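Batch manifest, entry 17 of 40.
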Amino acid sequence: MSIFRRHLSLALTILLFAVGCSHSTPTAATVTDTKPDGARLSQAQAVRIAAEAATKQGYHLTDYKDPQAHYEFTRKDRTWSIFYDGKVPMPGHHFLVWVDDRNGETRVMPGA
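Output type: structure tokens
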């Protein structure tokens, strides 16, 4: 395991601990620890990665409902789509995080 991956793993662990202490985590009904056929990450792992990316972008996850995670939602491209809807319904109060199942890279797309 490279030093970069070790540091990334450590940073992710610390961030998840801090985030977990600051707000509720998604319920078992919405996030499972199962892996779809062909996926490297489980649904729970993909949601944790998405939560880290969203937090780094300045989103306060306590303002959003539990995420909905889907593997290969629109295309067979080995990505997870994690949707966050705001607790208060208003235009633009949602966002999407794509997580690449192969390497864990993320893209955050704000709501419009």
